[in-house]
Design brief:
Strand 1 and strand 2 (15-26) form a beta hairpin. The protein has no helices and six strands. Strands 4-3-2-1-6-5 form a six-stranded mixed beta sheet, with no helix packed on it. The protein has 79 residues and is mainly beta. The protein has one domain (3-73).
Length: 79
């Protein structure tokens, strides 16, 4: 599965900040890759499903898409 780079405005600890994440598509669905861990020949991924209608192609060389939706990132201390 091909990965792209995306940037989004995220809410972390009650503050807005820009975050860069990997982005993958699975058919009509889009996922931000929050974290990944290699396990042997496989890679386990923590993915956040995004609304693909809110992805905008970016002209910036640093990333491929900008996500215009609200991205609330998980906090490990809440798990």
């Amino acid at each position: 599965m091909k990965s792209y780079k995306m940037r989004s405005l995220a809410i972390q600890n009650g503050k807005n900040s820009f975050v860069d994440l990997r982005l993958q598509f699975d058919g009509n669905r889009a996922f931000a890759i929050w974290d990944s861990i290699p396990v042997g020949n496989c890679e386990l991924q923590a993915r956040l499903e995004l609304n693909p209608k809110l992805l905008q192609k970016a002209g910036d060389a640093g990333y491929d898409f900008f996500y215009r939706g609200e991205l609330v990132l998980p906090r490990p201390e809440d798990n």
